[in-house]
Every structure is written in structure tokens, then in C-alpha cells.
Amino acid sequence: MRLVGIHLSYWQVRWDDDLRPLIGKAKRAGFDVAEFPLLTPAALDLAGLRATLDDLGMHASCGTGLGPETDITHPDLAVRNTGLAHLRACIQGAAQLGSPILGGVTYAPWAVFPQDDLGGRRRQCITSLKDVAAMAEDHGVTVCLEVLNRFEGYLVNTVTQGMELLDEVGSPWLKLHLDTFHMNIEEDDIGAALRQAGSRLGHLHCVENNRKIPGQGHIPWAEVGEALNAIAYRGYIVAEVFVNPAGEVGRGLYIWRSLADDLDAAAQQAAVFLKRELAGV
After folding, report:
1. Into how many domains does the chain fold?
2. Which member of 35, 146, 152, 208 is catalytic?
3. Is-catalytic flag, 240?
């Protein structure tokens, strides 16, 4: 059976909300995995979070995102070094929480579209990712590169582009992080794209085309399940569902209207759906 999880920002209103009670919410909703947003890992009580995970018998997964000040593709060495330091802290945090992966936008800044030489930035990205791969190996954490739609990133929009980038870095400690929301925009065939990723799929986010919980949109979940079985995927299946427009988290994720009447009830529905449709092998 594949383990099923939920991104804890599903319940957050502020980015600095305490994550410990949210682990309990994930457990009560029926999930096996709590996914942590490692935006500022130094500010988190990692030991306390790990203790809560252990007490509840929960697993961890982790994600992060780069920004303009942590851009590892940037022509300025100081900016790149800041980004590499951030990723090192995130990898260390993931290891401390017991997460086998660090996913998210780990290769370029999220929603930043430079006006200079994009080819040069891609080449710099490859050089930086070789350093990231060495960090990942040192800590036993696989770093996964999230394939984004064109409105949130320019460097890797499709599985094909992601595979090419992995080939050029050449490390088994880097894999792809796929997300059905982004795939619905960019891929010609979601099932075929998952099959193309094959053993290089390291992490999977499951969410509907409309950002609602799985089962409330038009993502072809039967095809997703068949593809995961075909490639013998054994990683986590995480609901990265953002439905609450409240506070800085809702605004930061562009949620302008409520997409669920009851957050806890919707989370339970998502856990049931994903376990039924995708968790079986």
C-alpha cells in the first residue's frame, strides 16, 4: 500500500501557525503522512514536530520553495549561495523529521520570470543542482524538482523538460515531483506523462484541476492509478489541496473564494478517496 498524506498548509491561516496541532488533524482525517512547508526551517521546532509525529505514528514529507533572494539560478554568486544555504537547511530539516524527500520548487524561484538570459540561468541551475545533489546524498534525502505550470515557473513545465534537467545533472539523489494540478495544464496526457517519469518520480501531489479535493473535478484518477501501478510507484501520495481563502496563506496561494464548506470533513473525504483510488498496488 502507498502512504497517503496531506499538506499541512491546508489548515494554515498564517505561515507561522503552529504545525503540531495540524499533525493531529491530519491523523484524525485518516492520513498517514503530514507534509511540512519548510519555508523558514530555522524557525521550526523540528525536535518537537518529530516527537509529535512519533507520538501519533505519522510519517513526514517536506517541501520548500525558492524566491528572489534564494535563487540558485541567479548570476550573482551571493544570491546563489543564499539559496544553497536555504536548501541545505531544508534537507537537514527533512532528515530530522524523518522525511525521505524534499519536494517543491527546489531549482528556481517560484513565480519569478527573469528578463535576462534564460539559457544562462538554466545552465547555472544545473551547476547549483550538482551541489544540492551532494547535500542530498550526505543526508540521505532525495530532492525532488516540482514540475510547474507556465504561470508559476518558466524552467520546467513538463515531464520531458524535467527529465532533460535530471539527465544533465546526473545524480540519483534528484527526482521529479509531479502535481496533477500542474499536469492538467501542461501535459497532453497525464497518464502517459506519469509513465514517462517512471522510476524518476519521487513525489506526487494529488489535487483537482480547480484546486479542490480529489474527486471534485475532472482529473482522470483512474488513469493516474493505472500509471502509478505500471511504474511501480512506491512514494507518498499527498493531497496538496488549498481551499481556504483566509489570511495570508489564502492570499499567498491565490485562493479567492472558499472551495470547501468544512475543512475537516473535506480532508476526511480526500483521505478516503485517495486511499480507495490510488493507495492500492
Report:
1. 1
2. 146
3. yes
